[in-house]
Write a sequence for this structure.
């Protein structure tokens, strides 16, 4: 199961350390609620050790060896594979206009974009959405459940974890490619996505409590995603800062 989208979200949210907890809507989780913290910290430490000695060095080598234009193509390819997820969840959330936008992006990028390696849809003014079944469950007022740190996948809530499994069930990568190729694509995406986070490593390392920093950043960004970038009163500062960080969405 690919963790890349959530690592990218963390990259955006990690720069929001100075912000306080966000307002919540039905089913959303407060940042100060972490009943599984003792277990989460153990898993976080194990993930961090694996990242320090394996993933980060591999990602640094990948960034040094793979040309920028090729990394951009890889980024576009995997984002195109995620578009059906956006389409399905926009429909489930009752947003037909956004779903039509997603369908148009799939058509343009898969054909004119050479299977998704290029992104003519964005050039045509079709902005990419970022929806998943975890957000759909939030719109349906399903409670978030406890905050979790999962091996490899990292930060989640129970609701988001269920959503990740549901989205993977119909993901084109799982349905269109045989298992051996899926594994290779998963490794490529993990390494590629980790390389996009190298610029935020220093911010995380400077945090007084890295675990709390990552948790709060993740939960803040999930709140922002649930509101589709239009948070209610009290989140205006978060919206402005996140818009300034949109460069993380592309290499």
């Amino acid at each position: 199961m690919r963790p890349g989208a959530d690592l990218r979200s963390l990259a955006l949210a990690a720069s929001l350390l100075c912000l306080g907890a966000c307002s919540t809507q039905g089913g959303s989780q407060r940042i100060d609620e972490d009943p599984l913290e003792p277990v989460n910290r153990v898993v976080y430490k194990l993930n961090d050790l694996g990242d320090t000695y394996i993933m980060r060095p591999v990602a640094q080598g990948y960034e040094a060896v793979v040309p920028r234009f090729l990394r951009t193509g890889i980024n576009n390819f995997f984002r195109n594979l995620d578009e059906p997820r956006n389409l399905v969840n926009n429909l489930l959330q009752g947003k037909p206009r956004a779903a039509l936008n997603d369908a148009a992006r799939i058509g343009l990028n898969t054909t004119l974009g050479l299977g998704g390696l290029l992104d003519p849809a964005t050039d045509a003014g079709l902005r990419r959405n970022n929806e998943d079944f975890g957000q759909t469950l939030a719109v349906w007022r399903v409670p978030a459940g406890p905050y979790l740190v999962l091996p490899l996948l990292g930060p989640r809530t129970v609701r988001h974890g269920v959503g990740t499994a549901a989205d993977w069930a119909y993901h084109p990568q799982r349905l269109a490619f045989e298992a051996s190729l899926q594994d290779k694509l998963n490794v490529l995406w993990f390494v590629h996505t980790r390389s996009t986070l190298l610029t935020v490593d220093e911010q995380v390392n400077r945090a007084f409590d890295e675990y709390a920093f990552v948790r709060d950043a993740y939960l803040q960004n999930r709140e922002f995603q649930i509101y589709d970038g239009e948070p209610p009163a009290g989140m205006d500062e978060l919206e402005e800062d996140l818009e300034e960080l949109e460069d993380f969405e592309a290499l």
The chain is about 65% helix and 5% strand. The beta strands are 147-150, 154-157. Residues 3-9, 11-28, 247-251 have pLDDT under 50 and may be disordered.
